[in-house]
Amino acid sequence: MSEAPTTETPPPGLDTAAPLLEFRTVDASYGPFRALFDVSLAVRPGAVTALLGANGAGKTTVARVATGLVRPTKGEVWFDGGRIDTLRPYRIARAGMVHAPEGRSVFASLTVRENLELGFRRDLGASGVNAALDRAYELFPRMGERSKQIAGTLSGGEQRMLSLARVMVHPPKLLVADELSLGLAPIVVDEVYRNLAAIRDAGTAILLVEQYVGHALAIADDVVVLTHGSVAYSGPATDLDDIAQYLL
Ligand SMILES: Nc1ncnc2c1ncn2[C@@H]1O[C@H](COP(=O)(O)OP(=O)(O)OP(=O)(O)O)[C@@H](O)[C@H]1O
Ligand SMILES: [Mg+2]
């Protein structure tokens, strides 16, 4: 008889390619408060993994651990073939992971153009800035119209577009998007999700943190549901009955 395989058989629907991002039995705490318990999850290259769960379930904490803002107290985090749980956030960003944090993530006192320029200068160097600006305005004409507007005075949806414009011009390997749709009108949410699909189509994997399930499931390949800091479900986005029982 042949030896037992040393790796687990992947769940149906998941391919066997190495994950782009992987949590291995991660715990994380804020001081004495433990927020994540033995969390294991994976984001496949180029795929969208939706991270779902109730308020306080630990979704943002997972995003912070992935991007290096919170250090795990146990377990390992791997990204693109390397271990990252001891790296500083800027090193993780440089390795190709972009974090679109909860809320409005623009520099409120700078103009639209200055916001874009800052990001492009960091990602592409000074010589790449002008071409990148042209591309951003082509993708988001409204940002072109409002290039001189102070970003803090943009509407909520426009501020999300500004964050996404930078990501789209220089697509990262992984976008960690935390509650992009929070507080936006449905029509703007639709637009944000169209942008996410375009980012995914450009080859970027997405870890999509969402409290509202409908849009997330529509774009997701895989789903992880957190309850009280633990993984309650992990698998394909098509097992709606399974997923639903953890979200009620
Ligand atoms: N800086 C912090 N200090 C102490 N506790 C924190 C801190 N940040 C988060 N927590 C706690 O950790 C738990 C998980 O929080 P987290 O922000 O990850 O939840 P979430 O799933 O993103 O929730 P939401 O859907 O409301 O954004 C919560 O109980 C929260 O109160
Ligand atoms: Mg959150």
Describe the structure.
The radius of gyration is 18 Å and the shape is globular. The chain has a single domain (about 30-245), classed as 3-Layer(aba) Sandwich (Rossmann fold). The protein has helices spanning about 60-65, 90-95, 110-125, 130-140, 140-145, 155-170, 185-200, 215-220, 240-245, and strands spanning about 20-30, 35-45, 50, 75-80, 80-85, 95-100, 175-180, 205-210, 220-225, 230-235. The strands form 2 sheets. The chain has a 6-stranded mixed β-sheet with strand order 6-7-8-3-9-10, sandwiched between helices. The protein contains 9 helices and 10 strands. Residues about 1-15 have low confidence and may be disordered. It is α/β, with parallel strands linked by helices and about 250 residues long. α6 runs parallel beside α7. The structure holds adenosine-5'-triphosphate and magnesium ion. Adenosine-5'-triphosphate binds next to β2 and α1.
Helix content: 25-40%
The CATH homologous superfamily is called: P-loop containing nucleotide triphosphate hydrolases
In angstroms, what is the radius of gyration?
A: 18 Å
According to CATH, what is the topology? Rossmann fold
Bound molecules: adenosine-5'-triphosphate, magnesium ion
Reading off the top of the CATH hierarchy, the class is best stated as Alpha Beta
